[in-house]
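Exercise: predict the structure of this protein bound to magnesium ion.
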Amino acid sequence: SLSDRLTSTFKNLRGKGRLSESDINATIRDIRLALIDADVATPVVREFTGRIRERALGAEVSAALNPGQQVVKIVNEELVEVLGGKTRELQMAKRPPTVIMLAGLQGSGKTTFAGKLARHLRDKGHFPVLVAADLQRPNAVTQLEVVAERAGVPCFAPERGNEGGHDAATGEGTQSYGDPVWVAQAGVGQAKVRQYDVVIVDTAGRLAVDENLMKQAGDIREAIQPDEVLFVIDAMIGQAAIETALAFQQGVDFTGVVLSKLDGDARGGAALSVASVTGRPIMYSSIGEQTKDIEVFHPDRMASRILDMGDILTLIEQAEKAFDRDQAAAMARKFMDEEDFTFEDFLQQMQAIKKMGNLKALMGMMPGMSGMKDQLNALDEKEFDRVEAMVRSMTPFERTHPKQINGSRRARIAGGAGTTVSEVNQLLERFGQAQKMMRQMRRGGGMPGMPGMPG
Ligand code: GDP
Ligand code: MG
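Solution:
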């Protein structure tokens, strides 16, 4: 997986202050392989990695993250953005009913999704109805009726009995029976009269993009003026994603995308392909054959599925959360004002570190960190607690004037914290060294790391 591959990259990056061009190239090579693994179409991979490279080269160095984390963060941010940024909700008509049309290749999962969406909306308090405008195959209407029944919603379908000829052996219609444009229009009309507030119109598809069917879909769109046209695409489609998506965008110009069959092995690369060539948001994922198997699409979750490194992304998020920007600004001011670092500052930093949760578990999630086992073990959290207890036993005056902490004060602090005077001595000595180091760094102009943290 990408995580494994990046482990080696992280190892090389650790300890460097800034990403060099060759570092970035190495990471990008890994990212490119991961995207290809996830079945992202080749031209999209090329374009995407190019953009990442540019951004990484121009990136400001983050104080909260190491360089490797920074590149991953950039990749993740770009992915989320291409995938539509935030979750995009259905656009409901100001005057009901809201008309939603489904389009896509045959077998992509339109009919199944029609039932899922109906159920999803019904659960949210809507009154949806399905309309069967796929009259291409004799059993398509029956299939939608079954789907509707499972979803617990009504289905408007044309009267049967006047079907045109169809091949009994294959079930394929040799001609369409009934006019799908008329059926769609009549269905929307009925929904209006009967006061349903959402109409979901199922349409026909072909195994490959087909001019006549595309024209039919375009005509249906023209006739019913839908509020949303959702393009349903099989997540396993692979390289063909671009061609198919562009054909449907030209033919019917959809407003949103549904990614189906995400329950399979698909890592979701089609999502990136479709979103990046059409610029349309992905709105739902279909994750199984049952009516309940529908999910509102979350760009951030899909990004981590494509990258296959959710743990690292969680880690990055937590590290950033812990790094309080205000605190950084206050620290910077301290350096400018030539003030000394105090135990109050120290306590604040310890709180920031604690916010990160269990530090060891967190660092353990990071690839490349296995090489840091010794340092991790040296970071004894019990000792951390003892240090905090000592600082807390100090008075505000003592925290800001550590040099004034004489023998009797030390004894009192040790007593309050349940430690020994020699431990308090050690803490004060280490603290004095940290202060001195910071004064030197201030003179040198560099920003110090956090005292109390392992190098
Ligand atoms: P349509 O031709 O676009 O209407 O596609 P259908 O809704 O008839 O689906 C085609 C096949 O894919 C059926 O066998 C469905 O059960 C199956 N299918 C649809 N959506 C999903 C999904 O999300 N996951 C899985 N595993 N199968 C699906
Ligand atoms: Mg169908």
